[in-house]
Amino acid sequence: MNIRKAIPSDFDAVWEIFSQVIKTGDTYVFNPDTPKKDLEKHWFAAYMETYVLEENSEILGTYIIKPNQIDLGNHIANCSYMVSLNAQGKGVGRKLCEHSLDIAKQRGFEAIQFNIVISTNTAAVALWKKYGFEIIGTTPKGFRHAKLGLVDTYIMYKDLKK
User: Fold this and answer.
1) What is the pTM of this model?
2) Spatial separation of the C-alpha atoms in residues 44 and 8, rounded to whole Å
3) Where in the numbering of this chain does the N-acetyltransferase domain appear (predicted)?
């Protein structure tokens, strides 16, 4: 598995992953009917870095890293990760997380904060905890889950200086 910065020719493969993941309406706030043209602002905007994980020339996962806030809040990173449905459970998320921690440190970020982790996404919550992220807040009924209705969301945080 190789992780590298995304290039323009990766757009369609990233779209396939993005559209698969959001279609379920259970892990991301994006409307399941988000049009392909919106991928640029959500995953390829100028203020973020986009990475892909590939194996045998197939893109299996992607993540973005960006400042969590502007100006006086830009010392904390924010990341989002997506794994192709056919690659889930194969360590892709783990590799993306490890890579993003290294990149965040290289870029001088002091911490990473996830602003909205769906509480029912137990695999993601467990993975983030394994890598030292802590739940520092809960938004009651912060997400309209496609099947479960209103569910809590977490704010998760990892200090990179420890």
Assistant:
1) 0.95
2) 9
3) 1-161
3-state secondary structure the chain: CEEEECCHHHHHHHHHHHHHHHHCCCCCCCCCCCCHHHHHHHHCCCCCEEEEEEECCEEEEEEEEEECCCHHHCCEEEEEEEECHHHCCCCHHHHHHHHHHHHHHHCCCCEEEEEEEECCCHHHHHHHHHCCCEEEEEEEEEEEECCCEEEEEEEEEEECCC
CB neighbours of 16 closer than 8 A, spacing ≥ 6? 84
In order of their start, the domains of the chain are: 2-116 (3.40.630.30)
How confident is the model over 75-83, as a mean pLDDT?
98
Please answer whether residues 31 and 79 qualify as being in contact, where contact means their C-beta atoms are separated by less than 8 angstroms.
no
pLDDT 10s digits, 8-17 = 999 999 999 9
151: number of CA atoms within 13 Å, CB side?
A: 20
CB of 107 closer than 8 Å to CB of 97: no
Q: How do residues 131-154 score in pLDDT, each as one tens digit?
A: 999 999 999 999 999 999 999 999
